[in-house]
Amino acid sequence: MSTEVASPPTSNTPTTQILPLELIEKCIGSRIWICMKNEKEFVGTLLGFDTYVNIFLKDVIEYENTPEGTKQIKLEYILLNGNHVCLVIYRSSVIIID
Amino acid sequence: MSAVAPSTTSASGGAATSNNNNAQFNFFKMCIGRPVVVKLNNGVEYRGILEVVDGNMNIVMEQTEEYLNGQLKTKYGDCFLRGNNVLYISAQSKK
Question: What does this protein do (chain A) (predicted)?
Fold first, then answer.
């Protein structure tokens, strides 16, 4: 009985599994939203990334959340260090709930 | 069956990383000798001519200007920035 319970997950995994970085790769060319560990966010078109999740972006807006409000900075091309990247979100998949 | 699946996934993953390293390498090539803005994790911004950059984002710049809260603080002729402090490197496209 216990062996039957254990077997289904192993048979399922090879067909359905997708690596995290493959998911990011599918976003190449589209607008993404990146949240950093600190109060910073970036929105831009994903051009590339590497295994450290250093991210190469085009037509970027940097949002910096400060106590005085959100500061926006526009940048054309950036190579963002992956060290402080927390969240990478495909832009049109966002549903904001109040 | 199980032996085949991991090999195919790893192969596609390898191809992906080589492409992406290319993208990064192209960015470095695009930027060198041109004015860039480098922002550090502590919020300090450096503007100058990019001389050299490596995979760790260690950077050597010329005619560097140090900005703190958008205000020019210091100028340096040559400067080296250790990569771990770098938040991003930003460049303008050619006109």
Answer: Plays a role in U6 snRNP assembly and function. Binds to the 3' end of U6 snRNA.
Q: Which positions in chain A touch B82 (Cβ < 8 Å)?
A: none
The domain in which residue A38 lies consists of 20-96
Does some domain include residue A13? no
Q: Is A81 on the interface with B (CB under 8 A)?
A: yes
Looking at this predicted complex, what is its ipTM?
A: 0.74
The type of residue at A32 is I
- List the domain boundaries for chain B: 25-91
In this prediction, residue B21 carries a pLDDT of: 64
Per DSSP, B50 falls in state: E
Model confidence pLDDT, tens digit, residues A27-59: 999 999 999 998 899 999 999 998 889 999 999
pLDDT tens per residue, range B12-34: 444 445 555 666 777 888 888 99
pTM across the whole model:
0.75
Nearest to B46 by CA among B28, B7, B10, B72: B72
Cross-chain residue pair A48–B19, CB shorter than 8 Å: yes
A63 touches chain B (CB under 8 A): no
> Is residue A2 one of the residues assigned to a domain?
no
Asked if B1 lies within 8 A of A84 by C-beta distance, the reply is: no
Say if domain B25-91 classifies as CATH 3.40.50.1000.
no
Query: Domain total for chain A?
Result: 1
Q: Which residues, other chains included, contact A60 with Cβ-Cβ below 8 Å and sequence gap of 6+?
A: A42, A43, A44, A74, A75, A76, A77, A78, B90
